[in-house]
Amino acid sequence: MSLNQAAGDIAIRAGTIIDSMKSMEGPLLPILHGIQEEFGYVPQDALPLIAKALNLSRAEVHGVMTFYHDYRDHPAGRHVLKLCRAEACQSMGGDALAERVKRLLGIDFHQTTLDGSVTLEPVYCLGLCACAPAAMLDGELYGRLDNEGADDLVKEARQ
Question: Which pLDDT value is given to residue 7?
Fold first, then answer.
């Protein structure tokens, strides 16, 4: 597939999502979510399409996309592991747990393992403060993590 065909495919698929949501009240975030759900990230080629449909500048769309940490501008790994970095989790050993997970995966936050299996992301509060430290793997929450629990999460993510 040539680069132009890939861009054309992005335009068609993103255009369908944009057209289905542009008449909503406050459509930008739902459109970004829909495009990320479709592609696994928000392709740069989709930004001018969104901007034009919503009568925004490309910079405004880019600014919103980069403000919210859940939007990606490149594909994630097959699994996404998010570690809570909020104060409650940090006070319960979250920093040491994060270092352990980074070491086990051989990557830092915002990186993907070489085999493409896991993307590691920080998240600032999963709402499990009473069960700190917490993590989320592919949308599933885990609380009261210890070293063994972290090791198990990494093993599960590597599969």
Answer: 76
